[in-house]
Amino acid sequence: MIMSQKLIVLAGLPGSGKSTLAEGLSRHFSLPLFSVDPIEAAMWRGGLPRDQTGIAAYVVAQTLAAEHLRLGQSVVIDAVNPVEAPRAAWRSLAAKYRTDLAIIECVCVDEATHRRRIEARMRAIEGMSEVTWAGVEKRRTEYEAWTDARLTLDTSAHPPGRLLAEAIGYLA
């Protein structure tokens, strides 16, 4: 399936299903995927202090995405994107390269399902410990509501294959 050039941004709290969906879209469309968590973990392994890498990891992801957009390629981004600053940066990047910005926000409405996911999660990102449920609850209080046009998927309501199909349809 051929689609127009897009900057595809997956957003949502940890454990909401965005990484699973981002990986599925990357595979389906054969697109590069830039995920903020592994970028940040690599910075830590490289010796950067943890208190200096949060925003920097987003900047690295934006820079990598820009290189691919410059070449006319679509890109998938996997990041929480909890506040306006990174969201504005993605909008700006899409405008700079005159590409479509497609936002997919993953939510897990069923709190018990979300908590089970977090407590069972084993991503094995070298140097990064798994987030706790208390950490997710804290992040939820800091997570600003989106105002951009987007596809919102409740990942607790449907199996991953159906969610992927819905996202593919949205991007087509």
Question: Any idea of the CATH topology?
Answer: Rossmann fold
| CATH superfamily descriptor | P-loop containing nucleotide triphosphate hydrolases
Taken as a percent bin, the fraction of beta residues is: 5-15%
Count every beta strand, where a strand is a DSSP E run of 2 or more residues: 5
CATH architecture: 3-Layer(aba) Sandwich
- Topology as H/E string? EHEHHEHEHHEH
Identify the CATH class: Alpha Beta
Q: What share of residues is helical?
A: 40-55%
Give the overall form: globular
- In the sheet with the most strands, the strands line up as 2-3-1-4-5
What does this structure look like?
With 172 residues, the chain is of the alpha/beta class. It has a single domain, classed as P-loop containing nucleotide triphosphate hydrolases (Rossmann fold, 3-Layer(aba) Sandwich), CATH 3.40.50. It is 49% helix and 15% strand. It has a five-stranded parallel beta sheet with strand order 2-3-1-4-5, with helices on both faces. The longest helix is centred in the middle third of the chain and has 17 residues.
In short:
With 172 residues, the protein is of the alpha/beta class. The protein has helices at 18-29, 36-45, 54-70, 84-96, 111-120, 133-142, 160-171; strands at residues 6-11, 33-35, 75-78, 100-107, 151-154.
